[in-house]
Amino acid sequence: MDLPPAIREDHNPLAFEGPLAFLRWTTYSCPHCQGVFRRDFWPYNVRLGSGERMSKKCGKVFDDGSREWPDLAASRKLRYFLPPGIQALTGAGLFCVIFTLIIAPRDVVNFQTGSILVAVFLSPVLVWCLLRLPFVLRSVHRFKDEHGVHQRISGGI
Ligand SMILES: [Zn+2]
Question: Distance, CA 45 to ligand 1 centroid (Å)?
Answer without folding.
Answer: 21
